[in-house]
Amino acid sequence: MNLSRTRVAVALGVAGALLLALVIISPMLMTSIPSFIGNSGEQPDCTDGSQTEEVSDSAASDIPADYLELYKEHGKKVGVQWNILAAVGKRETDHGRSNLPGVKSGTNSAGAAGPMQFLISTWGGKARIEMSSRFNGYASDGDGDGVGDVYNPADAILGAARMLKRNGAPEEVRRALFVYNRAWWYVDQVEEIARRYAKSGEVKVPPQADDTCDEPLVEAAPNEVVAKILSFALNQRGKPYLWGGTGPDAFDCSGIIYAAYRTAGLSIPRTTFGQWPFGVKISQGSEQPGDLVFFNAGPGTAPDRPGHVGMVVSKGQMIEARCRLCGPIKVTGYESRGNIVGFTRPLQNPDVVEQLERLQKASL
Prior knowledge:
Elements: H1 5-25, H2 57-62, H3 65-78, H4 82-93, E1 112-113, E2 118-119, H5 120-123, E3 128-130, E4 147-149, H6 153-166, H7 173-180, H8 184-197, H9 214-219, H10 224-234, H11 253-263, H12 272-278, E5 280-282, E6 292-295, E7 308-314, E8 317-320, E9 330-333, E10 340-345, H13 350-363
Antiparallel strand pairs: 1-2, 3-4, 5-10, 6-7, 6-10, 7-8, 8-9
Helix pairs in contact: 1-13, 3-4, 3-6, 4-8, 6-7, 7-8, 10-11
């Protein structure tokens, strides 16, 4: 969606100009600016719609009550359609009711284990993993006991949700399912079950996948500078991830942020490693659109050296170019990510404040 200058002016008006002046005069005043300032009209509901699908009679009669709650709980937490999660659980082990090898103990002939049939290597190297330890895999603690147990339904379902999300769900759910089990007949079977479990008979995509949800995000920006940054970033949705990419056809995680700030006439560091120390650190909960959220993820990273970054577009939501196998650039949730390092506000960096002052003088 392209937002004209006229529409931005109408949405922000004098308030936007005054807020921009505040940013230029004193970067510290940004902390007192409300996070969401926009038009007073009713905005469409662009929240995560992956949980709005009602349970069909077929699902209610087929899925054990405790499993159904877990599918819905962890689907909502991660941002994956609950009926897709449930369909995977049905296809793999009949929601844990199967007595085949590997479901309740050991592994099957392929090395898979648990109700969601994770390969032990994909889970993290062993069936039970202390979550405080270092490991590489999808082992998850869905019941809060500090252990990721591949045979525990709560842990396994959360791990499956994370794996599907990592590989493109909810927007590219077929791609995510193919990575889960590399056979298109498997993907077709899971989708058919998911449709049967949904009262609508569909596998719905969350509304934030639709660019009609861009407009309220831009209109709610705290000032015109942030509105320009968000508008550019949101217009890149659907483009692929490319390591080192700064557009126009593809971006990496820091590249899209670098390009978005350039569109507003501002220069910030190009890489995640450079962007992390550049912005002024802010506490979680005080972030606002245009701020950056950093993660301990990616090669060569550590808790004090984050390797992945997204841009906040609204409370709990960010736009990110995540990885080559994660699907296209899209708006996702960040609050459920367990490896957040911190948040920064590039607009409060002294160099950026000087750039804003020069832009303001040039426009007079």
